[in-house]
Design goal:
The complex is a heterodimer. Chain A has helices at about 5-20, 25-45, 70-90, 100-115, 120-140, 145-175, 185, 195-210, 220-225, 230-255, 255-260, 265-280, 285-310, 310-340, 355, 360-370, 380-395, 395-420, 425-430, 435-455, 455-470, and strands at about 50-55, 60-65. By secondary structure, chain A is mostly helical. Chain B has three domains: about 1-135; about 135-475 and about 500-530, no CATH class; about 555-639, no CATH class. Classes of the chains: A mainly alpha, B mainly alpha.
């Protein structure tokens, strides 16, 4: 019953917002709803596994089942941290009709929560689409100049993936013993090996687009660049995790044979993608595009670690799902402050932030080093374990992917140098007083970065049950 | 014991947080006292830990599990034994002196920046202590990257200067190349042994589980890590550029401590390295080549800090030569003596630069002997020590390495002596050009020449004393000594194999190398006592002056091609090939949809409906799957 709150609170607040116009109250409602959700998330992290089950579509034998194992918990926590962080950090931004904007954001949150909690395939698909639709409106109404074309591409791309997945779901459904969409039934579906391969491919395409895996990634930098930054934060901190989540929740347990059969090729593709995206990141001048490509590289590593299917690597992914979200959120918030205050994202026009706003520069440097997985930041723990798994799978691939560790240092330090160091540029000089709200959020996030970097054990404990289910038969 | 060791590490961390968070609050006096005081506390506790090791032997203490998963765990453990306790003393001892020196050297900085400087410096000591205290390779790696971070922050301390930023970035990236090697070695160990703790990895049982390929691979990868951190060929070019940082930083990080991390790592792993003859040869040859290459470059440099930087690279090369020929305690001995005399030389250089109002070109100095008496005499002691003149400390440590090199191969020894001669030459060239002859700077500079304050001269004097007498810890039995150090390290690196050479050979070798070094330094004195070098005239001179054009080579052969490749990926592959294919597919779908429907509805809904239908159709035809048909049938009938 408790899990239902993660859907009800955002939806309720979203509806409420439609009737409120005053900006102050709009912010208050959105932020309070998000904070209450966060409290709930903290509660389920420390409490035992809980679930919720109710009738939904008896006709199709699909039930409204929510369940929270370690994987779901950690992503629910990430979602629950991200939204209040985004709302507070961007509370000074002034989109037109802010109540509608925030209402759609909250609907997205509900969709995401549903995706991570759903224990029924059809329900999962329902939320998967539900999370996408508000984002479509957010991007196409509040986005940048090229929003229509970019959003259209983004939408068609991911929708295409979803459709493949829907067919896959139906395919597996029709082979379940009890004609049910429940995850448990899906796991026991009688699939011939050929059928398993087909279903695997159908699911995989959806997840691969969402992550995205090279070469299906070209929608992402455009979408990140053109979306309003608050939406970009959701997309890159939380939404890309839907793909990885899908792999862990559905692909790995449902189609073990097909999964292993494809581990070589998908891992290789991911490693190529890591290097490819890292190289491109080196040449970006637009701050948002740089972070976008950097994120593609990081997600690629996570996917490589998943498909190499070594326990320690998958453990790394489970931790990194959370850590990457926190880190990339921090970077986006910094990017947003800079864009809002200087009016540009082009790094060649920036510089001297360390003189103009030292605190923000320090925060930038903090997240930059988390981005390159410096030890004692959270990302080191995840990347160390993931590379470890990859090395066990294939040392050469690990070495090749390892080059990205060097490339990441290059593009990240370039970014720091261009933004923070040097003399104060004309654009930087335009910056008004520091944005205290956003800086406060950044400080909290940075504390999480270092705490989970020095003492990551709580993250291992939360995800232990998922790992056990995947590897101990 | 657990608390004492914990506090050694915690004091600098507290200092970092204190000055880092309070940079806008504290006065410069508070900042200076606190920063130096915390390191001094750390030194006192290091002495306690050292005495404890002397009395009770090595100890390992457990704090918490850093990583503890189903498959393996990495405990957060510290180990104090003879090796790490010696490093503790050097790091915190020299560290305290350099903090003290910095309080005066950096006094012109504004308070927030002054605090930032000391926060970085404290953080550096913290990381360096993690590096040497960790009881497994992962904790070592945490410190390893931590010192790299601090080095980056301190090289780029004056962040408005683009050249300095570039140097900082270069240092970090080159170190990262090495770090990747280190990481891969760690993964390799984990795959084969399931652990990275020294207590398990560095034992005969573990060695037996590793194949020759494993050992060679792991040690070579570890050595790649050492190459980055300790500036060996081919990853050495960052160190001379790192001189962009404040001079005390060069003394502490880029001479005395951080750059010796590679030597520490290999000494710690000596069981592995001794098991692979191939790696040992590689280490010795790389070390020797670096020693010679850097020495030739140092001969022609005119920036006081650059000469010292290349000298550091060269001396590190000697240490690796020592490691490569199995003289682990000799290498550690040289780490210790080098820490004293090189810190001394850098701080002396800082004192000169301070007096000369930030002039670093030795051609514009000269005759400083009378104006800076303390700096002069201490600097001279440093030069004698590094040149290897007995009974100063550098003589003993260098001689030990050379003797071991001779035992392995006389060619190693011969080249080592050639390098030692160059060392004596360029150091006394530096000394004579700076301190002897006539003053060649501006009148204004001459007017302001002054000896540095006590906070700066006191560290110079203490380090000079240490440089002079530190050889006492390793006087060989040959000279009636007892070689305290090698007995100390024996439990870790085994007893030194001095017996390989007869006493007569040893005496001869020693006499030859000392004579050559003294001759070289006298030649340098006679040439440079009166005049400085002009612009290089000969082809060789230009070649050395331009550092063998290695930077240019890297830029043209590696950086530019990679940059072009990245540009090609961004502009051509990404835009035209991949995205082109995506957009092309999209257009194709759009086009055919139009043709088939014969109307331009333009509504997403129709396209999607159409896609769904066609895909289902496709699958039905393709897989002839009755199940899907049955599902569709159910769907339509039930409703």
């Amino acid at each position: 019953m408790f899990l239902l709150l993660f859907l009800l609170i955002p939806v309720f607040a979203a509806i409420l917002l439609l009737f409120v116009k005053k900006e102050q109250s709009v912010n208050t409602i959105a932020i309070s709803a998000a904070l209450v959700t966060l409290l709930g998330a903290v509660y389920i992290i420390i409490s035992k596994t809980s679930s919720f089950d109710a009738a939904w579509l008896p006709l199709l034998n699909s039930r409204f089942t929510l369940q929270a194992d370690g994987l779901a918990k950690i992503l629910v926590l990430l979602t629950a941290i991200s939204f209040p962080a985004i709302f507070i950090a961007t509370s000074k931004n002034q989109p037109t009709q802010k109540n509608i904007f925030l209402s759609l954001m909250l609907l997205t949150q509900a969709g995401l929560m549903g995706v991570f909690l759903a224990g029924d395939a059809l329900l999962f698909y329902f939320f998967w689409e539900l999370a996408l639709i508000p984002v479509y409106f957010l991007c196409s109404i509040w986005g940048g100049e090229k929003r229509i074309a970019v959003t259209f591409k983004f939408f068609i791309y991911t929708f295409l993936g979803s459709l493949f997945m829907l067919i896959g779901i139906i395919l597996v459904y029709s082979h379940t013993g009890d004609q049910s969409f429940a995850l448990a039934s899906f796991k026991q579906a009688h699939l011939t090996s050929g059928m398993q391969l087909t279903a695997f491919a159908l699911f995989f395409i959806a997840f691969a687009i969402k992550m995205p895996i090279f070469p299906l990634h070209t929608w992402q930098p455009d979408a990140y660049e053109q979306s309003p930054t608050a939406v970009t934060m959701v997309l890159s901190a939380v939404m890309v995790k839907m793909g990885l989540y899908g792999v862990i929740r559905w692909l790995m347990p449902l189609f073990p044979t097909a999964f292993i059969a494809h581990s070589n090729i998908v891992t290789l593709l991911s490693v190529i993608g890591i290097l490819y995206a890292s190289f491109i990141a080196i040449r970006q001048d637009d701050l948002k595009r740089l972070i976008a490509y950097s994120s593609i590289a990081h997600i690629g590593l996570m996917n490589a670690a998943l498909f190499s299917h070594i326990q320690v690597g998958v453990q790394g992914v489970l931790v990194q799902l959370f850590s990457h979200g926190i880190n990339v959120l921090g970077l986006w918030i910094v990017a947003d402050i800079i864009e809002q205050q200087t009016g540009t994202r082009s790094m060649k026009d920036l510089g001297g932030l360390a003189k103009k706003q030292p605190t923000l520069a320090i925060l930038l440097v903090g997240f930059a080093f988390a981005n390159i997985a410096l030890p004692l930041t959270n990302a080191f723990v995840g990347e160390f374990l993931m590379f470890n798994g990859l090395f066990q799978f294939n040392p050469w691939m690990a070495a090749a992917a390892g080059v990205s560790v060097i490339l990441a240092a290059i593009y990240t330090l370039n970014m720091v140098q261009k933004i923070a160091y040097g003399e104060i540029s004309a654009a930087t000089n335009l910056m008004p007083a520091p944005n205290k709200n956003a800086q406060g959020v950044l400080i909290v996030l940075l504390v999480i970065v270092f705490f989970t970097g020095v003492y990551p054990q709580p993250l291992f404990n939360v995800t232990a049950d998922t790992l056990q289910q995947l590897f101990v038969k | 014991m657990k608390i004492i060791i914990g506090l050694i590490v915690l004091w600098p961390l507290v200092g970092f947080l204190f000055n880092g968070l309070g940079r806008n609050i504290w006065s410069k006096k508070v900042i200076a006292y606190k920063a130096t005081g915390y390191i001094a506390m750390s030194f006192i506790f290091s002495v306690l830990a050292f005495l404890n090791v002397q009395a009770n032997g090595a100890a390992t203490v457990h704090y918490f599990d850093f990583i503890n998963t189903a498959s393996f765990k990495i405990p957060f453990d510290f180990k104090v034994d003879a090796l790490s306790s010696l490093f503790l003393l050097v790091i915190t001892g020299v560290g305290t002196l350099i903090h003290l020196y910095s309080t005066a050297y950096m006094k012109d900085e504004e308070a927030p920046h002054y605090a930032r400087y000391f926060a970085y410096l404290n953080l550096f000591i913290f990381s360096m202590l993690l590096l040497v205290l960790g009881d497994n390779y992962v904790i070592m790696f945490i410190g390893w990257e931590g010192v790299g971070l601090c080095s980056y922050l301190l090289i780029g301390y004056w962040f408005t200067n683009a050249t300095y930023n570039y140097a900082a970035k270069k240092a970090f990236i080159m170190n990262r190349i090495g770090d990747l090697g280190f990481l891969l070695a760690i993964f390799w160990l984990i795959v084969k042994l399931g652990t990275v703790s020294y207590g398990t990895v560095l034992t005969a049982e573990s060695l037996a589980k590793l194949s020759t390929t494993d050992i060679t691979g792991i040690t070579l990868l570890l050595f790649v890590g050492a190459m980055g951190k300790s500036a060996q060929i081919p990853l050495y070019t960052w160190l001379p550029d790192a001189m962009a940082g404040p001079t005390p930083v060069s003394a502490l990080i880029h001479a005395a401590t951080m750059v010796t991390a590679g030597i520490y790592m290999i000494t710690r792993s000596n069981i592995l390295f001794s098991a692979s003859e191939f790696t040992q040869h590689v280490v010795a040859i790389v070390g020797l080549s670096t020693a010679l290459l850097a020495a030739t470059i140092a001969i022609k440099q005119n920036d006081i800090k650059k000469v010292l930087a290349y000298s550091t690279v060269s001396q590190l090369g000697y240490m690796f030569l020592g490691l490569g020929v199995g003289a682990y305690s000799g290498a550690v001995f040289h780490v210790i003596t080098h820490a004293f005399f090189k810190a001394l030389l850098f701080l002396g250089a800082g004192s000169v630069i301070h007096a000369m109002h930030h002039e670093q070109d030795i051609r514009k100095m000269g005759g400083l002997k009378s104006k800076l008496p303390i700096t002069h005499i201490t600097f001279l002691i440093g030069c004698i020590a590094i040149a290897g003149v007995p009974p100063f400390s550098g003589f003993f440590s260098k001689d030990e390495i050379l003797a071991a090199a001779f035992a392995k191969s006389p060619i190693y020894w011969f080249l080592g002596v050639v390098g030692a001669a160059m060392t004596a030459f360029y150091m006394f060239r530096l000394y004579a050009t700076t301190f002897l002859g006539q003053f060649r700077g501006t009148q204004d500079q001459e007017h302001h020449l002054h000896e540095s304050p006590v906070a700066m001269t006191l560290p110079l004097i203490l380090l000079a004393i240490a440089s002079a007498i530190a050889g006492a810890i390793g006087v060989p039995e040959l000279m009636g000594g007892h070689h305290w150090l090698s007995h100390q390290l024996a439990p870790i690196v085994g007893e030194a194999q001095e017996a390989a050479l007869s006493h007569q050979t040893e005496w001869t070798l020693m006499a030859v190398s000392v004579t050559i070094a003294v001759v070289a330094l006298l030649i340098a004195l006679s040439i440079y006592r009166k005049k400085a070098d002009g612009e290089p005239q000969t082809a060789l001179g230009k070649f050395l002056y331009n550092k063998w054009y290695i930077d240019e080579l890297y830029e043209n052969a590696i950086l530019n091609p990679l940059n072009k490749f990245a540009g090609f990926l961004k502009e051509v592959v990404e835009k035209n090939v991949i995205d082109g294919a995506v957009n092309g597919t999209g257009k194709l779908v759009q086009y055919s949809a139009r043709q088939i429907r014969l109307l331009q509805s333009g509504q997403v809904g129709y396209y999607i409906l159409f896609m769904v239908l066609s895909m289902i159709l496709l699958f039905v035809i393709w897989f002839n799957d009755i199940a899907i048909l049955r599902f569709l049938f159910q769907l339509t009938h039930k409703s």
